[in-house]
Amino acid sequence: PGFLKGYVRRFAQKSHDHRGTPERPGRVVTPVHQEDWAAFSAADAFPHEGVVWGVVFTIDPAHARAVCDELAGARAQDGYTLERVDVYAHTLDGIEHVAVPRAERYVRRSDNPSFIDAEPLDALTRTIGITAGLSGRNMDYMYDLAAAVRALASRAHDSHPLLRRFCEAVIVTWPASVARGCCQ
User: Fold this and answer.
1) Three-state SS string across 51-87, please?
2) 129 pLDDT more than 80
3) How many Å apart are CA 53 and CA 51, to the nearest integer?
4) What does the alpha-carbon distance between residue 175 and residue 18 come to, in Å, rounded to a whole number?
5) What is the distance between the alpha carbons of residues 183 and 163, in angstroms, rounded to a whole number?
6) Half-sphere exposure of 115 toward its Cβ, with a 13 Å CA cutoff?
7) CA distance 149 to 171
8) Which residues of 44-54 are buried (b: 16+ CB within 10 A; e: fewer)?
9) Distance from C-alpha of 138 to C-alpha of 140, rounded to nearest angstrom
10) What is the DSSP string of 107-136?
11) Which residue from 118, 117, 126, 137 is spatially nearest to 169, judged by alpha carbons?
12) Average pLDDT for residues 113-127, to the nearest whole number?
């Protein structure tokens, strides 16, 4: 795992296809520039860590052009912007360093049509609880995200407060039979 500096991970993207529909868009997380998110922070219940943990994938050079073309088409249709970012990691001694310089990363900007600013947590949990799209139920996305962050970046601070508080709100908002093991 590695991390980006100057970003926050937020449920700031409407999903009109994979986790929702055009009539009832779901919500998915996206890294947002911290300075962009600051404009919406008054309603944001989560701290601004400025670090987003994740995983970097390397594309086989033999397939790079085809993969990049496919990603560019899919990402451009829902308002992503391609940027080059440094990905940081820690050595075994805990020393921070640039692990992957100038990695390509699609990011969400606040001027795209699918961007959504901070929503009250109860409204966000209701939306995630009732939406589904081509890739399945939005609540399953949220559960899988929580599990992936815990498994891949146990030292991550960016998503644990968000997901923990989100899960606590889920338990209050959703029926127990629906809120299956979210906070385990």
Assistant:
1) EEEECCCCCCCCCHHHHHHHHHHHHHCCCEEEEEEEE
2) yes
3) 7
4) 24
5) 8
6) 19
7) 19
8) bebeebbbbbb
9) 5
10) EE-TTSTTB-----HHHHHHHHHH-EETTE
11) 126
12) 83
- The structure tokens listed for 169 are 């709100």
Token code pair at residue 124:
């966000």
Between CA 145 and CA 28 the distance in angstroms is 9
Q: How many CB atoms lie within 10 A of CB 144?
A: 11
In whole angstroms, give the CA distance from residue 65 to residue 103.
15
What pLDDT, in 10s, does the model give residues 26-83?
998 888 888 888 777 666 655 556 788 888 888 888 988 888 888 776 655 566 778 8
Tokens of 89: 């990691």
Residue 126 structure tokens? 């209701």
Tokens describing residue 100: 């992957």
Measure Cα distances from 36 to 8, 40, 60, 105, 127 in Å.
10, 8, 33, 17, 23
Q: Which residue in this structure is represented by tokens 């520039």?
A: 33
Tokens of 47: 């701290």
Nearest to 11 by CA among 129, 103, 151: 129
Residue 143: Cβ within 10 Å count: 20
Q: Mapping DSSP to helix (H, G, I), strand (E, B) and coil, where does residue 147 land? A: helix
Residue positions counted in the chain: 184
